[in-house]
């Protein structure tokens, strides 16, 4: 039985939590029968950075570039050193393992200090350098977790994502995986009874340059490791006991979803559910590997199981989720009617600016195209404005408007497919909440209905939808 266990930033937030994670891992590893390690459960651990470390690395890299204050860099390194040394003392009891881990941390911090000073002196921060800097969060956490596992009497080794066999292109910041060489790297270690601790979020090119997989990429790393090993299970350990029917910070009486399909999980992750990274599901879905969402602080809770089965439910809608901080772009123009290539030119402009388009709709009259992108993508807005100017001479586009006071709401559930009247009931409930729908989109899978409303109406809308379709349904 090969299990990949990924632990997020809150799970490894400090030394005490790292010690707790090491106990969970060791207990699972030792659950097999007999003294021979061949009888043990084979475990691979994927870890995030300690809480807020990645954010602080982003901040200090900007400061090193903009402020160029060497004293500030030295102060930052000392703060990070103090925090990780304290974590060593809290997570590991054996003095020899403590010292062994401390040496690894010091060597790693020395590398970090050199690259930050380099940015400060040169006044230059390339995407490649930024990925290298951001990699240090996981590279500092993994040795401490590995040491804590050793402290429990088990063998462990730390590997970066690249050393584990995750190979990517050189699109620094959000690299694309090109090859998985994980089985050849990790399987021999498992056969020796070793528990590998792999850094999430980071990978590397075939030239061994460090790359990152995008924010939240540790979940994705775990799925890639699981797929590469053809594991029996991938577990994402976080601070909630599975996937919930809505955001508990906004909606009361949320329910845990015991089981869901891969497709439902992908839709939820893409449309704002924070418990899972959107790209996590695809690698395990391709291999048919079950995925579990577990709570590090309630390890006995079964959590949520995600697999290929679609179980009938009394609730066609399983969860309501939302994406905030988005921009709705409306492009108007009667001149677009019947003119081929207009939409292509619009989307090419968005593509050139690397805008991430969340939703698209076009009226059958072809006089309007609505697009939702993440807020802050000013290059995308600039591109559309420039495109309007380009079309001004031929009168294809009359106007481009922007609305930043909006959010996307999505209702997800496999049983919506074939459920007559579900869309009508959904939009009736939205109207009863007082919200006005600005845009609607539904995929051909019929697993998700998404719409855009004003941000001021969000809380009432979520509460009404959750009560109508989840709380009041047995």
Provide a short characterization of the protein structure:
This protein is of the alpha/beta class and 474 residues long. The chain has helices spanning 15-29, 53-66, 70-91, 95-122, 127-134, 136-151, 161-164, 182-191, 217-229, 262-270, 281-287, 342-352, 378-392, 422-432, 458-471, and strands spanning 2-7, 42-47, 155-159, 166-168, 177-180, 194-199, 202-204, 210-212, 233-238, 259-261, 291-295, 304-307, 319-332, 357-362, 368-374, 399-412, 437-442, 448-454.
Question: Mind explaining what this structure looks like?
Answer:
It contains 15 helices and 18 strands. It has an eight-stranded mixed β-sheet with strand order 3-6-2-1-9-11-12-10, with helices on both faces. Strands 14-15-13-16-18-17 form a six-stranded antiparallel β-sheet. The protein has helices spanning 15-29, 53-66, 70-91, 95-122, 127-134, 136-151, 161-164, 182-191, 217-229, 262-270, 281-287, 342-352, 378-392, 422-432, 458-471; strands spanning 2-7, 42-47, 155-159, 166-168, 177-180, 194-199, 202-204, 210-212, 233-238, 259-261, 291-295, 304-307, 319-332, 357-362, 368-374, 399-412, 437-442, 448-454. The protein starts with a strand and ends with a helix. By secondary structure, it is α/β, with parallel strands linked by helices. A hairpin with a 5-residue loop joins strand 17 and strand 18 (448-454). The model has no long low-confidence stretch (mean pLDDT 90). The radius of gyration is 24 Å and the shape is globular.
């Amino acid at each position: 039985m090969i299990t990949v266990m990924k632990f997020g930033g809150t799970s490894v937030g400090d030394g005490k939590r790292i010690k707790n994670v090491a106990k969970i891992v060791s207990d699972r590893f030792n659950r097999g029968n007999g003294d021979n390690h061949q009888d043990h459960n084979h475990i691979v651990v994927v870890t995030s950075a300690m809480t807020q470390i990645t954010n602080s690395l982003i901040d200090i890299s900007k400061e090193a570039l903009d402020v160029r204050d060497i004293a500030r860099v030295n102060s930052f390194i000392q703060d990070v050193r103090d925090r990780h040394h304290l974590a060593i003392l809290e997570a590991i009891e054996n003095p020899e393992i403590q010292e062994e881990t401390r040496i690894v941390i010091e060597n790693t911090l020395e590398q970090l200090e050199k690259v930050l000073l380099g940015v400060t002196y040169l006044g230059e921060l390339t995407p490649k350098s930024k990925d290298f800097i951001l990699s240090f969060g996981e590279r500092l956490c993994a040795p401490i977790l590995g040491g804590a596992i050793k402290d429990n009497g088990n063998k462990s080794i730390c590997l970066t994502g690249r050393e584990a066999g995750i190979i990517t292109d050189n699109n620094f910041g959000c690299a694309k995986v090109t090859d998985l060489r994980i089985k050849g790297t990790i399987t021999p270690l498992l056969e020796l009874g070793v528990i590998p601790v792999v850094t999430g979020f980071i990978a590397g090119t075939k030239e061994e340059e460090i790359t990152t997989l995008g924010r939240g990429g540790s979940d994705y790393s775990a799925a890639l490791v699981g797929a590469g090993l053809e594991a029996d299970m991938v577990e994402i350990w976080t601070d909630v006991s599975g996937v919930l029917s809505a955001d508990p910070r906004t909606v009361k009486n949320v329910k845990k979803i015991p089981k869901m399909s891969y497709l439902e999980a992908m839709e939820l992750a893409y449309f704002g559910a924070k418990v899972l990274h959107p790209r996590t599901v695809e690698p395990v879905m391709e291999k048919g590997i079950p995925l579990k969402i577990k709570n590090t602080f309630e390890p006995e809770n079964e959590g949520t199981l995600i697999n290929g089965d679609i179980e009938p439910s009394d609730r066609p809608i399983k969860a309501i989720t939302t994406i905030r901080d988005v921009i709705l772009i409306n492009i108007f123009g009667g001149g677009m009617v019947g003119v081929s290539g207009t939409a292509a030119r619009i989307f090419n402009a968005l593509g050139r600016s690397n805008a991430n388009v969340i939703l698209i709709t076009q009226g059958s009259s072809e006089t309007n195209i609505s697009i939702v992108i993440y807020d802050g993508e000013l290059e995308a807005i600039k591109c559309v404005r420039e495109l309007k100017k380009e079309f001004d001479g031929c009168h294809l586009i009359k106007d481009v408007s922007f609305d930043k006071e909006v959010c996307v709401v999505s209702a997800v559930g496999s049983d919506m497919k074939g459920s007559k009247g579900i869309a009508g009931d959904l939009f009736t409930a939205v109207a009863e909440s007082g919200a006005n729908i600005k845009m609607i989109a539904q995929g051909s899978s019929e697993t998700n209905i998404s719409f855009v409303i004003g941000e001021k109406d969000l809380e009432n809308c979520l509460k009404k939808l959750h009560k109508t379709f989840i709380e009041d349904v047995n």
